[in-house]
Amino acid sequence: MTMSAAAWDGVVPLLDDRFDLIVPTAAGHRGGPTLQGRPTIGALVDAAEALLDERGLATVHVAGNSMGGWIAVELARRGRARSVCAFSPAGFWTAGESDETHATNMLRRTRRLAAATRFVAPAALGVPLVRRLAMRDVAERADRLTRRQAVESTRDLLGCDAADDLLGTTERVEPLGHTCPITIAWADGDRIFPPEVNGVTARERIPHAHFVMLRGVGHVPMIDDPALCARTIVDATERDAD
């Protein structure tokens, strides 16, 4: 949520010799298609399905992080996924309870901080330590990013028109039976969706999924370890042959 396709910039070059990649920015997000009507997860899944329809693709391997992981799971529910690799997926909560409000409060705090510092951030984010501290809720090693990448991430955050509605959603991931091979890869350093909270719920709602714990990474593992994310995606697609 709030990030653009640029979040995958470190992972894409590690996969493009193996797959024909589609790397979209979610509807309602900066650089993505405009949403008609109120932004909901269901509407974002509709937009993702429409993209597949435009490309003439019945099913694809799907990878996503956080909200994108939730969308990936819902595409599997609709029969549009050959396999799913969901990194720390959102939606494994009870609406209005602490397992949801903890995450949404952190994201709202991050947006408020970004808005308050938007005029000084471009200069400050030139310092690696500042990048690491400013993005500590989503990554362990945000200092790996360049200044330009960190600034663009902040612009994505502030330019996401759908954020307020999505942060107030009453939707959740409902239990899912067997559809396609599903890998759920949780970051052990996830501060937004702690694996001992939201990860436990994920195991209850999709018990047949293959669960993987990613070591040394935060909620957005593509920032911390693109190579680990790429390997995890490849492994998830190969489970399709099991």
From TrEMBL:
Keyword Hydrolase attributed: yes
Source superkingdom: Bacteria
InterPro entries per the UniProt record, alphabetical: AB_hydrolase_1, AB_hydrolase_fold, AB_hydrolase_sf
Signal peptide boundaries: none
GO function term, MF aspect, one: hydrolase activity
Record flagged with keyword Cell membrane: no
UniProt name for this protein: Alpha/beta hydrolase
Organism: Mycolicibacterium hodleri
Keywords: Hydrolase
Domain AB hydrolase-1: 4-231
